[in-house]
Amino acid sequence: MRGREMSNEAAHVFAVRVYYEDTDAAGIVYYANYLKYAERARTEMMRALGVENSRIRNEKGILFVVRDCAMDFRHPARLDDQLEVHTRLTDVGGASFSGEQRVKRNGEDLVTIQIRLACMTATGQPARMPKDLRAQLNELLNKNNGSN
User: Fold this and answer.
1) Three-state DSSP class for 63?
2) Residues in Cβ contact with 114 at an 8 Å cutoff, skipping those fewer than 6 apart
3) CB 3.0-4.6 Å disulfide test: which of 4, 67, 136, 139 passes with 118?
4) How far from chain centre, in Å, is Cα 110?
5) Is 24 noted as a catalytic residue in this protein?
6) Are 100 and 6 in contact (CB under 8 A)?
7) pTM for this one?
């Protein structure tokens, strides 16, 4: 997944403000908090598709868990910064999907995240993604790639 550049045209954008609780003693965002921002952004991207985590858990008995994650830290975010997390799908499989997320400030990339999520049952067993959900994610993937 590394090295593939993301087009911002079709990315889902989630805004987030840096609060005091997000920072270390120097007023710089603590590295683990970027994962929280990314999680919120992915959740809101899925919600925009009409997919809510609690509903797919209750109705279909599945969850998405992080299978793989790589982060590249380029510049620090600081207290009171207004950030945007740009999320774009890069691959959809039968039981997982991958994406790229970029945390930006004023259009500048601060952190790039490559992530793969796997589909599991609520009891922790690997599971195939429901066909309807996979179709929705593929539609978004095609939009991200500039085709319909």
Assistant:
1) strand
2) 1, 2, 68, 69, 70, 71, 98, 99, 100
3) 67
4) 15
5) yes
6) yes
7) 0.88
CA 17 to chain centre: 17
What's the CA dihedral at 3, 79, 46, 58 to 10 degrees? 130
Domain covering 12-141 in this structure, CATH number:
3.10.129.10
Per-residue pLDDT tens over the stretch 52-103:
989 999 998 999 999 999 999 999 999 999 999 999 999 999 999 999 999 9
pLDDT tens digits, 8-50: 456 899 999 999 999 999 999 999 999 999 999 999 999 998 8
- Single out the catalytic residue among 24, 68, 80, 132: 24
Distance, CA of 148 to CA of 145 (rounded, Å) = 9
**What six digits make up the tokens of 11?**
């990315």
Q: At which residue do the structure tokens 């899925």 appear?
A: 46
Tokens 């601060």: give the residue. Answer: 110
